[in-house]
Design a protein that fits this description.
The protein is α/β, with parallel strands linked by helices. The protein has 16 helices and 21 strands. The termini are far apart. It comes from Halalkalicoccus jeotgali (strain DSM 18796 / CECT 7217 / JCM 14584 / KCTC 4019 / B3). This is Coenzyme F390 synthetase.
Length: 461
């Protein structure tokens, strides 16, 4: 995208920040009309899928929802650039040396890990990439205008640390690497930290890097705050951004008090990164000028405001290369009609789902080591031929693994690799004498939400 077009999007994003609800809705309606028309004309899949919907209709309830499995099954017909094929995209994301590169030299590509069901591949166009890059700024940059935050940003050389799973084309890791490649300052100032690293190694690396901005999985950031309180970690970020997992108000207050800095929760997904950002009053605001959110029940019927949904249908208003129209994201959200004290007219929302427990294991000497849910599940997911997994702690020294394999794989052979990888991972963290056992059942969805919890403990805490 040329600088002029990027500037237009950035300017519009900031103008909408202070807009009225009517102005925000007008932006949404205009973009929705354009997106529906484009998808029905340029995507062979949506042309068929919406064949029975009246031309020009903007009543989303008339459009049948889509799921990840549907979009992956019909991938070549969903995308609107015929140069993109599923086989070539799959080969691209299978090559870790291409992390941070653009597919065909122009498209960022993100993959989902599969912890909520089937893995997915999502291609971004330049507008979607720009929106994901600038939308969060309108909520965060005003909070950084004070003397203390600015001083820390300068003192820490604008270092940005992201704690996210590496080793794949995941939105966090691959997006960071793309910015490192394409930014003059990115290589020195952006760095990825793996939650799979032993906690002491992670602490040591952060002490050396001294981030001005610390972003990452909520469970990891809370554990790092405990390390800061204990004196093992000594960093002074200007901004902390918990994301990817639920975080309580008490935990956000702990982060603010411990690091004495601005804390802003981010909510997004690989499919559409900047869904909502927290304001200075602690409320998540949905970026509804660029996304349509429909909280629905298990039958895809709308739920009332202030009612938690069974899932949410997402319509992206930015990405035209792989359109998402009424996409079943799987998360439970709650939307509110009330106006936020911050003055913004953007809708307030809360998020449920994506639950995972931090597992504390005792090592020699009696100390406890935390193992983070996304780090643990990713160890299993990276084993070839694993389709999806769930990890349950059934006893103090026992982990039970539920897993599915791809159709051509032998479950017994896959299990050998899972057991080996998990035991090696645990040993790297100083954890021994753990029994890792294969469950008799396959991963199960929660009855209420239909989602897959990926890591939890059955022990009383």
């Amino acid at each position: 995208m040329n600088p002029i077009e990027r500037g237009k999007i950035t300017l519009d994003v900031w103008r909408a920040r202070g807009g009225t609800r009517a102005e925000i809705e007008a932006r949404q309606r205009r973009r929705l009309v354009e997106m529906l028309s484009f998808a029905r004309q340029q995507s062979r899949f949506y042309k068929r899928h919406y064949a029975d919907v009246s031309d020009g209709s903007t009543d989303l309830t008339q459009y049948p929802p889509v799921t990840k499995s549907m979009l992956m099954e019909h991938f070549d017909d969903v995308v609107t650039d015929t140069a993109i094929t599923k086989n070539e995209v799959d080969a691209f994301v299978a090559d870790e040396t291409k992390i941070g590169e653009r597919f065909l030299g122009k498209y960022p590509v993100w993959t989902t890990s599969g912890t909520t069901g089937e893995p997915g591949v999502f291609v971004q166009d330049e507008t979607a990439w720009t929106v994901s890059d600038v939308v969060g700024d309108r909520w965060i940059l005003p909070a950084m205008a004070g003397i203390s935050p600015l001083s820390r940003l300068i003192t820490q050389n604008l270092h940005i640390a992201l704690v996210a799973v590496s080793g794949g084309h995941f939105a966090g890791a691959a997006g960071l690497e793309l910015m490192r490649r394409e930014s003059v300052y990115g290589e020195r100032r952006l760095r990825l930290f793996s939650p799979k690293s032993p906690i002491n190694d992670l602490i040591s690396d952060l002490n050396q890097f001294q981030p001005a901005i610390l972003e990452g999985y909520s469970t990891v950031l809370v554990e790092l705050a405990r390390a800061q309180q204990d004196g093992r970690l000594s960093i002074s970020p200007a901004l902390v951004l918990p994301t990817a997992e639920p975080i309580s108000e008490a935990q956000k207050r702990m982060l603010r008090d411990t690091f004495d800095c601005v804390v802003r929760e981010l909510y997004g997904a690989t499919e559409f990164v900047p869904i909502a950002v927290e304001c200075e009053h602690g409320n998540l605001h949905a970026n509804t000028d660029w996304v349509v959110l429909e909280p629905v029940d298990e039958n895809y019927q709308p739920v009332d405001p202030e009612t938690p949904s069974d899932t949410v249908l997402v319509t992206s208003l930015s990405n035209r290369v792989q359109p998402l129209v009424r996409y079943d994201l799987g998360d439970s959200i709650t939307l509110y009609d009330e106006r936020c004290p911050c003055g913004s007219a953007f809708s307030i929302m809360e998020v449920g789902g994506r639950q995972g427990d931090v597992l504390q294991f005792e090592i020699d000497g009696g100390a406890k080591v935390p193992i983070f849910p996304l780090a643990l599940s990713s160890v299993v997911e990276e084993v070839p031929d694993v389709h999806r997994t769930q990890i349950i702690r059934t006893a103090p020294t026992t982990l039970q693994i539920r897993f599915d394999v791809t159709p051509d794989a032998t479950k017994e052979e896959v299990w050998k690799h899972i057991e080996q990888k998990l035991q090696s991972f645990l040993r790297d963290h100083g954890i021994s004498r753990i029994t890792v056992e294969a469950a008799s059942e396959t991963p199960q969805r929660e009855k209420r939400s239909g989602k897959f919890r990926h890591v939890w403990s059955e022990l009383e805490t």
